[in-house]
Specification:
heterodimer, A: 368 residues, alpha+beta, 6-stranded mixed β-sheet, 9 helices, 21 strands, globular, B: 130 residues, OB fold (Dihydrolipoamide Acetyltransferase, E2P), 3-stranded antiparallel β-sheet, 15% helix
């Protein structure tokens, strides 16, 4: 039996199909995954993401610690509440995890890390934190609910504790605010506007029920996966891991090599950049019927590669994926789908943002 | 709770069979199977004239989550694949025992479905988590 979030019983009562995810029993969906997906693109949907782990780092040395631990530059976080997306790297440049880091004050940053990697992340962070006297506090006392979609903020704000409403209604994108033991941030993993809300576990069920009563659709990890993939967002463990660097995972934009700052993994990334990355991660659009799945083989003019994430896109009504290929690959490729080679086009993610397609879709080739 | 119509025959791999008045057999996947797969987005049906042996993979049903083979419960010749599924794979989700049929087969002489189940036996398979 896996670990359970504070909302476990509510998921069962709502008819959720439960699956293991990173050691947690989580809802994969409550009915039609495609309807859940559309609810987020068109209105508002909510996800229990309490399996992810909020970690508070407290102490005067917290900013220097994160300047060294994270590949993105927390020196850029100047306004209290500002957050950034980053990778945490091994000395050889491999990705330990991807995470959100939020600056609250000079003695307090909050990180949110993946469920399946939380234990190794905490061990790694603690090892470095003890040298400069920063306290590392995993917040397993908190539940986390993501509310996403064009109407998500409007439906959520009235249901927040009164002390949070003012702060939440003026939050800029990628800002968070702490209020009354709650923590509201304008972030997400769907390509839509919305909030991620960390709150005391005992308050989670009431908040979840209130959101449902306000017409926010319950959404499972299935819809979360199709939404994030349409948004061109990586999934740790599928699209990158300890054997790949951010530069070969479509995440160069999250790495700050410029300036004198030294961070763990920097030397390896500089060496890789100087030599030229051998492979890259990019988007894939299937041109015929069928569905891209992870680990399918891909054949390009520059050599072979592999689909790292694949699914059906409910918004585009096509199959899309992410693929790791030799860096020179371009144009049209072929994918081995169940023994048959199907043509697909390399495209630059995202596929969909804020409800709108971001890539050009030609009419599909006729079925052979 | 999934539906299991009493007048059909079933397989352990979640196909159903309905014998039509002309002796051909209509084949599809059960309500339980479509619920397990979730939203179907792509279905590949066999072409008329194809000869199948009982146990052959004869169709592919692909959902957002996963692709699965459909196995022919009978030996015989395909009379038709459901043409509606090419553009409306969701017919299987909406009406698995009706509009969501996958193929019609003309059984070879004497090839009764060797291990077919009645509704009660299939219900037991589903209840056992098959």
């Amino acid at each position: 039996m896996g670990k359970r979030t504070a909302l476990y019983d509510l998921h069962l009562a709502a008819g959720a199909r439960m699956v293991d995810f990173g050691g947690w029993d989580m809802p994969v969906g409550y009915g039609s995954q495609i309807e859940e997906h559309h609810a987020v693109r068109r209105d508002a949907g909510m996800f229990d993401v309490s399996h992810m782990c909020a970690v508070d780092l407290r102490g005067a040395g917290v900013r220097p610690l994160l300047l060294r631990l994270l590949a993105n530059d927390v020196g850029r976080l100047v306004l209290p509440g500002k957050a950034l997306y980053t990778c945490m790297l091994r000395p050889d440049g491999g990705v330990i995890d991807d995470l959100i880091a939020c600056y609250l004050d000079e003695k307090w940053f909050r990180l949110v890390v993946n469920a399946g990697t939380a234990d190794k992340d905490l061990a790694w962070i603690k090892e470095h934190a003890k040298q400069i006297g920063v306290a590392v506090v995993p917040r397993r006392d908190l539940a986390i609910v993501a509310v996403q979609g064009p109407n998500a903020r409007a439906k959520t704000i009235p249901l927040l504790p009164e002390a949070c409403r003012g702060a939440a209604s003026v939050l800029g994108s990628f800002f968070g605010a702490s209020c009354d033991e709650w923590f509201v941030s304008r972030t997400g993993y769907t390509g839509e506007d919305g909030f991620e809300i960390a709150l005391p576990a005992e308050a989670a069920a009431g908040f979840w029920d209130a959101l449902a009563a306000a017409g926010v659709a319950r959404c499972g990890l299935g819809a979360r996966d199709t939404l994030r993939l349409e948004a061109g967002m990586n999934l740790y463990g599928s699209d990158m891991d300890e054997t790949t660097t951010p530069l070969e995972s479509g995440l160069a934009w999250t790495v700050v090599l410029e300036g004198g700052r030294d961070f763990i993994g920097k030397a390896a990334l500089e060496k890789q950049r100087a030599a030229g990355e051998a492979q890259k991660l990019t988007g894939l659009l299937l041109l015929e019927r069928g569905v891209l799945r992870s680990h399918q083989k891909v054949f390009s003019g520059a050599g072979e590669g592999e689909v790292t994430s694949g699914t059906y896109s409910p918004t585009l009504e096509r199959s899309i994926g992410l693929v790791r290929l030799p860096a020179a690959a371009d144009g049209t490729v072929e994918v081995d789908i169940r023994g048959k080679r199907s043509p697909a086009r390399l495209v630059k993610p995202p596929f969909v943002r804020n409800g709108k397609p971001k890539i050009e879709i030609q009419s599909r080739r006729p079925v052979a | 709770m999934s539906q299991i119509p009493a007048d059909l025959r079933y397989t352990k791999s979640h196909e159903w069979m309905r014998t039509l008045p002309d002796g051909t057999v209509e084949i599809g996947i059960t309500d339980h199977a479509q619920q397990s797969l979730g939203d179907l987005v792509f279905v590949e049906v066999p072409e008329a004239g194809r000869r199948l042996t009982a146990g052959d993979a004869c169709a592919v049903v692909e959902s957002v989550k996963a692709a699965s083979d459909v196995y022919s419960p009978l030996t015989g010749e395909v009379v038709a694949g459901n043409p509606g599924l090419a553009t409306q794979p969701e017919l299987i989700n909406k009406d698995p025992f009706g509009e969501g049929w996958i193929l019609r087969l003309k059984p070879s002489g004497g090839s009764a479905a060797a291990e077919s189940l009645d509704a009660a036996a299939y219900q037991a398979v589903v209840a056992a988590g098959g």
